[in-house]
Amino acid sequence: MSKPSLPQGTRDFNAATVQKRHYIFQTIKDVFQAYGFTPLETPAMENLETLMGKYGEEGDKLIFKILNNGLDNPQKRAQIDEGIEKVLSGKNSTVISERALRYDLTIPFARYVAMNHGSLTFPYKRYQIQPVWRADRPQKGRYREFYQCDADIVGSDSLLNEVDLLAIYVTAFAHLKLPVEIKINNRKILLGLAQVCGGEEKLIDLTIAIDKLDKIGWDKVKEELQGKGFTNTQQDLVQQYLNIEGTNAEKIKQLANLLGDNENGQKGIEELNYVLTYHQHTGMDKQLVADFTLARGLNYYTGLIFEVKAADAQMGSIGGGGRYNDLTSLFGVPNIPGVGISFGVDRIYDVLEEKQLFPASIEQTTQVLFFNLGEAEAIVAYQQMMVLRDKKIACEIYPEKSKFDKQFKYAEKKGIPNIIIIGTDELAKKECTIKQLLISKQTVVPFSKIADFEF
């Protein structure tokens, strides 16, 4: 038998890790709910046609397709087997897969809205915390199975929605005590740049290339642009655009001069100014940075786009999102504007762990250990334990009668801070001995008062 292993890009989570992840989930969920969002869950798999073509050429390559199997129809089964043989022999076949694991939570959400728009109250504000899958190359901070936490607002064009979502980012990371920088750009600005460079049809090639800037550098981006037909003059214009620096106000002024009177570019600048000005009044603007290198290569973004980076951490983005006004039209339901953000929980976890920002208390579960000192003593100890459990105090009893030393070591290894001893003497006196290990204090308490004890 081979040694057990995990698929690449997946992980097991022990108790301490699960507790820390729950802390992140709960912190973000509390902020979502404070901003008026309600929960939604969608299936792990979607029809393949729901996902394909929504993430651009690069994204489509990373979708995990599910093999058709277990069907009762013999004819269909034969077609699938034939399709598998064609794929294995190097020939394409569309028969073998009709479903795929979800790549993100946004497209399934758009599908849900398209299917249920007649019964939803708009603007509809939902949050969703579920795993997604991508056939990416595993590396630090990048996994093939990972959780996303999304918040989206659909059915409203108002830029107040973008203002609110940026406030959610600032608030959530403040609660996690994680300093961040939130980068903002606008796809209309990128569209304006593409038009100045020769035409709207250049937008996708431009955004895909710019999106790789951090990973491959300008020289490689320039090569990619050249390969896509950008002239030397157009490449120089893109380089000027990417080299814009200064304060938010200074960068926006330089951008306006570069794009001139291009209508889409000026509209993008106007929307960018709107959210920055709004948050000057909330004081949150200090964490908002106009960054024109931000492209977000996904095809469905149409307006403001966001990306979150942790300060002083060797990690990629830990959040991102933007406006996607025509997303539901992909499913035959036009004219439902939307905007959303996503938290990369796995990366957030890694940064919090690296910076030792998790509260020490979240790893502690059992508060009280009852010693097992014999059958009669254990019966009474169990009764008293249930009294504490009713008070929502997490406790357990050692499962076998054992020496004090063994039970103490168990409490020590699990980090249990309190021990309750009910031995022969305590049983006769209807009392227990409570040892508070963290403060080295011992107290004798009657059974009738155990529920009132402050652990």
Protein described:
- With 455 residues, the chain is of the alpha+beta class.
- It has 2 domains: 15-354, BirA Bifunctional Protein, domain 2 (2-Layer Sandwich); 364-452, Rossmann fold (3-Layer(aba) Sandwich), CATH 3.40.50.
- It is built from 16 helices and 16 strands.
- The chain has helices at 15-34, 48-51, 56-60, 74-88, 106-116, 160-175, 187-196, 203-211, 213-227, 232-242, 248-259, 263-282, 345-354, 375-390, 404-414, 424-429, and strands spanning 38-39, 45-47, 65-66, 99-101, 124-133, 145-154, 180-186, 288-290, 304-310, 319-323, 338-344, 368-370, 395-397, 418-421, 431-436, 441-446.
- The strands form 3 sheets. The protein has an 8-stranded mixed β-sheet.
- Helix 1 crosses helix 13 (345-354).
- It is elongated, with a radius of gyration of 28 Å.
- The mean pLDDT is 90.
